[in-house]
Structure formats: C-alpha cells, structure tokens
Amino acid sequence: MREITFQRALEEAVAEEMRRDQKVITMATDFTGDPIKEFGPTRVRFTPISEAVLTGMGLGAAGCGLRPIVNWRMVTFSFVAMDQIVNQASKIRYMFGGQADFPVTYRCTTGGGIGLAAQHSQSPYSMWMHLAGLKIILPSTSADAKGLLKSAIRDNNPVVSFECSRLATVTGPVPDGDHLVPLGVADVKRPGTDVTIVGLAYYVGEALAVAEELAKEGISAEVVDPRTLVPLDVEALRASVRKTGRVVIVDEAPPTCSAASEIASLLVEDSETFRALRAPVRRVCAVAVPVPYSPPLEQAALPRREDIKTAVYEVLKEPVRSL
Amino acid sequence: MCANLTPQDRVTSTHRGHGHCIAKGADIRRMMAELFGRVDGYCKGKGGSMHIADFAVGMLGANGIVGGGLSIACGAALAAQIDGRGEVTVCFFGDGAAAEGEFHEALNIAGVWKLPIVFVCENNQYAANNAVAVQHPQVDIAAHAAVYAMPGVVVDGNDVLAVHASAGEAVARARRGEGPSLLECKTYRWHFHAMRNAIPPDTRPAEEIASWKARDPIAKLEQYALSRGLLSGAEIGAIQERVRGDLNEAVAFAEQSPFPHPKDLLVDMFAR
C-alpha cells in the first residue's frame, strides 16, 4: 500500500475512471494535478466561472450518455447553482418517471478551519441530504476518498462528493489496484465497547485521536464513520450504539437540521437502539455562526478535541439504568 | 422549428411544453395520460403537465422553472459535440428567461465552446404579467447574441414558414460545427398568465390582444395554403377532423389508464 494525500487520492480516482471509461469528462474552472496532459481538452474542460450552467450541463450531458464530473471547487460556490441542484438535479429522474439516468458527479471542497472566512468555509451537506434525489459521499481518509469517488463516478445517479478542505494534505495508505468503496456502507474506524463516537470527515481523525487518549484512561471508544450520508448506513450506526449504549456525534456543521441531528433521530427512533441507550445522545457541532476569519474566533466556532472528550465524559457519567 | 430536426436531435422546453413535445414526435396519448396523472403517462403520473419528457424521441423535458432548461440544453449540446455525429440541440425558452442569469451563462459558454445548439426565444411579449418593455431595456432578445459571438435573428413567430426558414439556417450552422445561434420568434400570449385562484383584471390593451389574434399563426398558414392552392378547404377540414379524432382518442386512452398505486411512490427515485 502507498501513502498518498487525500487530494492525490481524489485525483487518482478521477484519472483512473477517465482511463476506464471514455464517457467520463471533467469540467472545472481549474484542476489540481495536470489531467489535461493525459486526457486532452475535449474531456478536461476549463470553464468560465458559471456554476449554474455547469451544474445543469453536467445533468444534461449525463442524460445524453456522458458521465460528467463537475467540480464546483468550493461548496459555497455551488449556492450560485441552487436551481440546478434543487429543482433539476435532485428531481429530474423521479419527475420524468425514471425514463433516463443521470450519472453526474458534483465535486466540492467543504468545511472550515483553513482561515478563509464564511464565504469559503461551510459544511452544508445536510441541505443536500434534505433533498430527495442526491447521493452524498463524505470521505475521511485517502483510501475512502479514492474508493468512494470512483464509486460515485460509476453510480448512475447525481452524486455530490464533499471533500474536506482540512484533509487535503493529510496522507494515508491507499490499497493498490482498482480500489472501490461502495456507497452506503459505514466503517468502524476503531472498535470499542464503552461509547460510540460517530465522526464526519475531518472529525473522524479527531475522534480517533480522542479515542487514543481515552484508551490511556481505560475508556474504550468505538469510532464509526458513515462515509456516505445518502444513502446512510443507519444499521451500522445503530449496531454500534446498541453495543456501547452511549453515543457522541461529531461534525463541523452547526447542529440545527444537521447530519448530526438526522443521525441522532435515526438512532433513537429505533426501539432496540433506544432501549440500549444508557445516556442521552450528545452532539458536538459547530457554533451556529458564519465561520469567522480571525483564528481565535474560528477555533471557538468549530469543535475541538476537548469538546469531544468532554461530551464523552458526560455520556459516561450517566448512571446505568436498572430495568 | 422541429421540422428541421432528426429523431436523434434533442430539444429542451419550458413550462408550456406540450407543443414542443408534439413537434418532436411524442405520443399525444401518453401526453394526455400524464396530464390525467395516470400510469401510462410519460412520467407515470409523477410529472404532470409541466414535466413531460420523452427521451426516446429527444424531448429532454418541459421545465417548471423559467430558464431552467437552458443549462440542460447546453449539456445535451456538449454531449452531441463530443459524440461528433452532427446532432443538434434546440433550446426553447421565453422572453422572461432572458432576464435570468442562466440565460447569459448558457449563451456565454455555448458561444465560447461553439456548442451545436439553437436558442429559440418565444417572445410572447409578457413575462408573468409584465410587458417585455418594462423588463428589458433592449426589447429585442436576439440583440444579446452579438455579445456572445453568435448570429441573432428576429423572426415573425406567427409566420410558420418564416420560422421554418430561419430555423433551418440556424440548425444547419450548428450541424456544420459552426456553433450556436439565437433565434427570437416574436409572438403573443393570448391568455392571461394562470396559476391564480382569482385572476386579476387583464391590463393588456384590448386592441393589442385583438391585433395579435388577427395574426393567428395557424389561420395564417391555412390562408397561405388556400391562396396558393396547396390545400383545399375540404382538405383543411379533414386535417382538423383528424386532429380532433386523435385528441379524442388520447383522452379515451388517458381515461382508461389507471391511477398510480401509492405503493409505487418511491419507484424511480434512484437508478441502479
């Protein structure tokens, strides 16, 4: 296995899928790496800064036989294309009675912690989860980034790939060969027995670091990464919580109507999981503000390791109920 | 417009897409069934009037959002350009869409990439209830073409043969790989913009409505055919009779088609 950056893993995913299938094209205002050298300007298209038309073009071209990858670059830029995302991409297949497939992948960076302030730092995946009709991937490691993006490109539906900014330069092992990670399968990143920490994207790594510290105190934390938000592997999350009886959900989006709140609901709506809970579900999320610029403010807005640790201690404090 | 197209060419449409569907070769029985919300409709009753599509004949869908189809049409044109078989996309929209940002994004990228597309503006003089002159400082939508380096042509949208001729030139240009065109067809919406429970008083001048009604494109084409001896009155009557019969048959087809079963609510959400 090679150690490569998260960013490199994503580039490899695109290149491998473009080699594998001539129908895959990619469009963006600019590219990391140098894909045009290998694939040429017909399939690697530098575009005007026109998020709306590019989003719709990806959809239209997908309906006509291509497998386009549209890279919005930052997720905040995609808000310019809201009609194409909300009214067109998420509805088109169902609205037309399934008479055509739309295999388009929308890529974007997501998250804060990079000192770029509110209009370049956001984690709005729950807005997309709320729409019926888009699949969503949110990898946390180089291996998952590559495997999930490859699966997304091969998927016959619109898929949004949220690629965490803070992970771009983080390295990790990636299996050799045609490495695929199926959509809708969560991954237990670290097994444990006392508490489940559900982490998303950057906060999977943070949860693992916290779990390591807790282990020294004799606390066994299980870290679970959903990896895909739509479809969400709710059974894997429930299974972990049924085992540990305690759960902390960590994400850098604000808590209101978030992926974390959806996961919390899905856990407690299941009677078996509900009965297994020994403490209230806890969420560790960003503060509900536009992400500020100044480092001390940004750090105060986003979850920190201490916040995760504190939440774990709190759920562990709850006495075991005698039934 | 569509008389210049092959079955492999594609069109995108607006929230008033029935005519485009018929012109591109869609089956009016399945269209009617869709209007009736029945399982034999093009979208199995999931789309209704404003979302009829027939991908098999290159009709990529009506669109409930003003300007929503322009980007999708550009994507179809990009696919055709890459496929290299000379297929063309025709994008229908109204004068209202020309005030949307996506109109400009679409013309810009089509111009810079020389996409094989014909933008067809059906300028019916009113967007919602507002006259074109109170929405656009330049009332000729075709004038936008110059900025995006493509031909812009204004044509009498109520003259079927004039539209056919202009469309033919624009489609041929796209097919030759010479890029997009913008064709503006000046026409008129006879009826009030709908979708309201209580329709407000029509503020459009009565003379204006009357003058456009006097230029009914179908009646004009009939007059032309009669005056040239291309069709007799009896032949025109036979065509009208046939259309009436087809519509009655479509209604009967729709009425006998069952409503969708609620158990199928989630069918067609995701492709395998």
Describe, in plain words, how this protein is organized in 3D:
The complex is a heterodimer of chains A (323) and B (272). Chain A is α/β, with parallel strands linked by helices and 323 residues long. Chain A has 2 domains: 2-174, 3-Layer(aba) Sandwich (Rossmann fold); 187-317, Rossmann fold (3-Layer(aba) Sandwich). Chain A is 40% helix and 20% strand. In chain A, the strands form 3 sheets. In chain A, strands 3-2-4-5-7-6-12 form a 7-stranded mixed β-sheet, sandwiched between helices. A 5-stranded mixed β-sheet of chain A has the order 9-11-10-13-14, with helices on both faces. In chain A, strand 6, helix 7 (142-154) and strand 7 form a beta-alpha-beta unit. In chain A, helix 3 (51-63) packs parallel to helix 4 (82-89). Chain A is globular and about 60 Å long. Chain B has one domain (2-191, 206-261): Rossmann fold (3-Layer(aba) Sandwich). The model of chain B has no long low-confidence stretch (mean pLDDT 96). In chain B, helix 6 links the parallel strand 6 (152-156) and strand 7. In chain B, 39% of the residues lie in helices and 11% in strands. Chain B has a 5-stranded parallel β-sheet, sandwiched between helices. Chain B has 9 helices and 7 strands; from the N terminus they run E-H-H-H-E-H-E-E-E-H-E-H-E-H-H-H. Chains A and B meet through helix 3, helix 4 and helix 5 of A and helix 3 and helix 4 of B.
Number of helices of chain B: 9
CATH class of chain B: Alpha Beta
Global shape of chain A: globular
Q: Quickly name the level 1 CATH class of the largest domain in chain A.
A: Alpha Beta
Describe the SSE topology.
The complex is a heterodimer of chains A (323) and B (272).
Chain A: E1 2-5, H1 6-20, E2 24-28, H2 35-43, E3 44-46, H3 51-63, E4 67-74, H4 82-89, H5 92-95, E5 105-110, H6 125-130, E6 135-137, H7 142-154, E7 159-164, E8 171-174, E9 187-190, E10 195-199, H8 202-216, E11 221-225, E12 228-230, H9 234-244, E13 247-250, H10 259-268, H11 271-276, E14 282-284, H12 295-301, H13 305-317
Chain B: E1 10-12, H1 18-24, H2 28-35, H3 68-83, E2 89-94, H4 101-113, E3 117-123, E4 126-127, E5 130-131, H5 144-147, E6 152-156, H6 160-175, E7 181-186, H7 206-213, H8 217-227, H9 233-256
Parallel strand pairs in B: 1-2, 2-3, 3-7, 6-7
Antiparallel strand pairs in B: 4-5
